[in-house]
């Protein structure tokens, strides 16, 4: 409706080509050489999409924008007045002409870009610019005034010892990752957030909005963060060591899973929570690559790009684990798929043996049928395993006050198929401290009292039934 599809049509139910890209150059610098070079087609090297706008970076470092977006050249507002422009085709952002746009992110109404100070990116020279809507301070410029033109965030100028190397935008908040320009400094990286903080998405321990970049103090020191992502009202970041932290809205729903699994303690996570990797990989995720946040869920790419984990709200199957339920802890997505999603075009068989082709076709169909059956069986097994895992976590959390993890499995069961439950229980009691034993005693007393109440109620019900039965016979 506002041109965010890059076309004049209102809506499109199928993918369509976005037209409108042309050589990014100034009209007054046109020469024979540049005219020849301008005939080369541009390649898109990076894309981002926000609430009502889309952006692309081309292979020469030019930035393009379309949809309902802030654009100074096309704005019809008066001098100093801010307004959005609707464009159904990509238009260049000329403010960065002569420089290289390296990375860009956008929220519902604002844009943040990392741009080289010179013509090309040489390392250590990236500047951070922001523009667009600023009702909550999401531009990080120290006020709430919106900008129709890119403006430098002075905290990260060329004289600053810090350089921004990653950026992400939520609906109305922003997160940045910085590292020190001098390699001798001990602190490896920092996460900075600003903008709307009503749901704790800034991670500063309170639900206050910030107009300028503020470091997230709840993260460990001397770590290197490789990726950061902002959802609608939550934020997530991952380190090179495989540690993942998340903060923001509704930790009880799995956006920022609560380590205690205590429903009474559910709500917004105003400080970073460590998200452990469950299963054989725990507690860290192996070889993390990238993290991404949706409106109410998180997806992590790890294991050098071969495995996907996801958690959060599972409606419409967005978690990719074969279910449509909310997940409180990271669950492995069904990747790689067992059935190929795309088939190669069949070669021209003219002049070939038709019987051989028919036989090959039948074999392919039979294999696809078997793969389909195997996929359904795996979905069923995953579903059963998920139910068992959640049931075990509920019981374990009720008794021990924390979720069930891989290391909680007794060694005898890990090493063989035999399991002496009496012996393992005795070993666990011997190794428990006083506080843990007291907690077990309280749990046992509460459970016993509940069972006694249930037995009493059952006995009363049986007596009442016997009395009613006797009266019926006497009548």
From TrEMBL:
Residue stretches making up the RCC1-like domain: 2-332
Keyword vocabulary terms for this entry: Repeat
Segments for region (Disordered): 342-365
RCC repeat coordinates: 61-117, 126-180, 189-241, 242-304
Record has Repeat as a keyword: yes
Gene3D superfamilies, per database record: Regulator of chromosome condensation 1/beta-lactamase-inhibitor protein II
Full protein name: Guanyl-nucleotide exchange factor
């Amino acid at each position: 409706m506002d041109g965010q599809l890059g076309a004049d049509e209102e809506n499109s139910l199928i993918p369509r080509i976005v037209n409108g890209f042309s050589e990014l150059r100034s009209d007054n610098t046109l020469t024979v050489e540049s005219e020849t070079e301008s005939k080369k087609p541009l390649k898109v090297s990076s894309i981002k999409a926000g609430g009502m706008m889309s952006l692309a970076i081309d292979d020469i470092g030019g930035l393009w924008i379309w949809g309902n977006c802030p654009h100074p050249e096309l704005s019809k507002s008066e001098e100093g007045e801010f307004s959005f422009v609707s464009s159904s085709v990509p238009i260049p952002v000329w403010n960065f002409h002569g420089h290289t746009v390296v990375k860009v992110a956008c929220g519902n109404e604002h844009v943040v870009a990392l741009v080289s100070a010179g013509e090309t990116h040489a390392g250590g020279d990236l500047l951070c610019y922001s523009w667009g809507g600023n009702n909550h301070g999401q531009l990080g410029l120290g006020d709430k005034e919106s900008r129709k033109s890119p403006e430098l965030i002075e905290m990260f100028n060329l004289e600053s010892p810090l350089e921004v190397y990653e950026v992400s935008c939520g609906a109305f908040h922003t997160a940045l990752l910085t590292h020190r320009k001098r390699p001798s400094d001990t602190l490896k990286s920092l996460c900075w957030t600003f903008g709307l903080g009503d749901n704790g998405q800034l991670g500063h321990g309170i639900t206050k909005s910030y107009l300028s970049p503020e470091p997230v103090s709840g993260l460990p020191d001397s770590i290197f963060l490789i990726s950061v992502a902002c959802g609608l009202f939550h934020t997530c970041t991952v380190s090179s060591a495989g540690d993942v932290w998340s903060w923001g809205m509704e930790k009880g729903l799995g956006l920022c899973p609560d380590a205690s699994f205590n429903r009474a303690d559910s709500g917004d996570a105003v400080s970073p929570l460590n998200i452990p990797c469950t299963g054989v990989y725990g507690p860290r995720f192996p070889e993390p690559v990238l993290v991404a946040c949706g409106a109410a869920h998180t997806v992590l790419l790890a294991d050098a790009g071969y495995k996907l984990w996801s958690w959060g709200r599972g409606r419409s199957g967005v978690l990719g684990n074969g279910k449509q339920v909310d997940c409180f802890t990271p669950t492995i997505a069904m990747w790689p798929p067992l059935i190929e999603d795309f088939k190669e075009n069949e070669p021209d068989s003219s002049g070939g043996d038709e019987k051989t082709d028919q036989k090959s076709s039948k074999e392919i169909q039979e294999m696809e049928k078997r793969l389909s059956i195997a996929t359904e069986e795996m979905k069923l097994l995953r579903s059963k395993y998920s139910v068992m895992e959640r049931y075990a976590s509920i019981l374990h959390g009720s008794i021990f006050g924390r979720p069930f993890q891989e290391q909680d499995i007794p060694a005898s069961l890990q090493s063989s198929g035999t399991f002496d439950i009496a012996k393992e229980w005795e070993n666990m009691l011997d190794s428990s401290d006083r506080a843990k034993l007291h907690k077990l005693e309280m749990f046992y007393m509460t459970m016993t009292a509940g069972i006694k109440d249930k037995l009493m109620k059952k006995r009363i019900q049986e007596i009442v039934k016997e009395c009613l039965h006797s009266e019926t016979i006497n009548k």
